[in-house]
Amino acid sequence: MNIMKMMKQVQQMQAGLAAAQEKLASQTVTTEGAGGKLKVTATCDGNLTELVIDPSIIDPSDSEFLQELLLQTINAAIAKGKETAAAEMKKLTGGLDLPPGMGF
User: Fold this and answer.
1) Domains in the chain and their CATH numbers?
2) Which end of the chain is flanked by fewer CB atoms within 10 Å, N or C?
3) Which residues contact 27 (CB under 8 A, 6 or more apart)?
4) Is the separation of the CB atoms in 44 and 24 below 8 Å?
């Protein structure tokens, strides 16, 4: 294979990965907890963008319940975003397993 052709393909892949990362930074996923009374929205690059808590699940005498519910729902949103990002990157790389930090 021609080295120049290979270099051009690598540059095209890098451009595609950069575009995908930019897209994923603005693409959001939402998870719910407590039967929809808690909603967490995050970008696919792991930033929380919205947190909605129905006042009916706030019990000042049981803050542990709300804390645990928040952690579970936030972690679920982050995991969902990572799964979405990984699937998108896999499309671009043709299923190549890239080293950490080279994909998304």
Assistant:
1) 3-93 (3.30.1310.10)
2) N
3) 43, 44, 84
4) yes
**Would you give the DSSP letter of residue 50?**
E
Structure tokens at 51: 């947190």
Question: In this structure, what token pair is assigned to residue 60?
Answer: 């000042």
Q: What is the rounded CA–CA span in Å between residue 67 and residue 46?
A: 19
> 73: burial class by Cβ within 10 Å (0-12, 13-18, 19+)?
buried
Q: How far is CA 24 from the centre of its chain?
A: 7
Total-model pTM? 0.74
Tens digits of residue pLDDT in 58-74: 999 999 999 999 999 99
pLDDT score of 95 more than 70 = no
Quote the distance between the C-alpha of residue 99 and its chain's center: 18
